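The methods section describes the discrete structure representation at length, but only in general terms. Each protein is reduced to its one-letter sequence and a matching series of backbone shape codes. I believe one specimen quoted in the main text would settle the matter. An entry of this sort, consisting of the sequence and the corresponding backbone structure tokens, reads as follows.
***
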Amino acid sequence: MDINIIRKHLRSEKGATEDFKVEWEWERFMVGGKMFAAICRPSEKYAIEYAGFTLLSLKCDPTEAGFLRDKYPDILPGFYMDKNNWISVRTDGEVPSKLILELCDNSYRLVFSKLTKKLQREILQAIE
């Protein structure tokens, strides 16, 4: 899937902010100061399933993450993240584009739901 389409989709989430973590070489997408997605390209020094691929890391329900990893070889345990709660998707793999965008939305919702109610209201009011 075109990484620019993914970036645009992530930026469109309510209250989403973006930065670039230089020391990690990661594009990070956050809501309320909490990361819900990251895009990176690990170098050849990392495990072969990650090295050299553009990865989209997303927060995911642990049960769903296991199911997705079993069904799609291009969905891996989260690169450099908690392997139970994060997945990494090879963006040039065989995962359907529609599913990738749904996983982005789910990740956003998981992180947004953990923010304080006050912060959730502030984010929603700021975009009205």
